[in-house]
Design goal:
With 371 residues, the chain is of the alpha+beta class. The chain has two domains: 24-95, no CATH class; 148-369, no CATH class. It has 17 helices and six strands. The protein has a four-stranded mixed β-sheet with strand order 4-5-1-6, with no helix packed on it. The protein starts with a strand and ends with a helix.
Amino acid sequence: MLYVRPDYYDKFKCVADRCEATCCAGWQIVIDEEALCRYKSESGEYGEVLRERIDFAEGVFVQDCHKRCAFLKENNLCEMYEQLGEDSLCFTCANYPRHIEEFENLREITLTVSCPEVARILLEQKEPVKFSEEELDADEEEFDDFDSYLEDARKIMIALLQNRRLSVAVRVALVRKMAEEMQNIIEESDLFDLADVFENYEEEAKLANAVREAEQELKTFYENREESFQYSKAVFDRLYELEFLSDDWEEYLNRCKKILYGEGVQTYHEMQKRFKEYCMQAPLDSVNMDILLEQLLVYFVFAYFCGAVYDDNVIGKIKMSIDSVTVLYQMFLAKWKEQEGTISGEDIKKIVYRYSRELEHSDVNLERMQS
């Protein structure tokens, strides 16, 4: 079994009660069948406590009126962990914030940015993310057959996204175009033609031509101020099609939308211009916006692109990745504007993990963003 992890994987360590936004509140924690069986059969006095605080019919931990897990103490430590030890935890609690995808002879493990500590680690990563590969023995299990062309395509896309000689906008345009070309071929069931697509984005002369085309298309797009305004607004409005997991998320979206689009095209573009200037002039020890956007794009593409093995929806995975980073950037802009021309790394970290919690903790939302 080949294990693949990002190079910042080993930097993570749960900060437990020092976490600013505990993962044990805000959503229901689903319990795996093995853990449910253990909890049902736990003997002694604490076994009774377990059975009182677990909804066995739904397979989740009971929550209080503030959506806090019934085992979460006031000091934000887990009572079950203290009473029964680490081995008592269910799969979700033991593994979060790890995100695991398993294919034929391949297991990919990432860290989800819905965790504030992971968001901080990614925010501080300045070098292009690399992925380590390790061959380890694993129990024989049945996994979905993995189409290697998806992994090949993802490597090319990540290389494009990490090409810092190009603007982030051009990198995004190249990856989107490549995904569109792949999707057309997949729908025609002629996968041998994918080699030609890959060559267009790897071979130096052909890539240079693709870059020139992308730059021209972007120039035309940005010159049409109304079109670019409406595009940004349409991408942001997609968030209203999702289910809201946090009680205050819709209110937050409304506030951002009013700041971004409430005063029309001219004000929007003026804000964009001044925010771009601000990001370019920011002190060296603060957030580098281009690098942050790159890391977020690579994060989403690595975590979700190869999931197209299940549905052949290559373009959907890429659109979700690009749209997510697009709306995150707009949220950074709104925060900067709301704070009268300043934004900190802490502000950005909070926006990232809050957005991730709305998107990545809902299968419904992930599916809708890929449609």
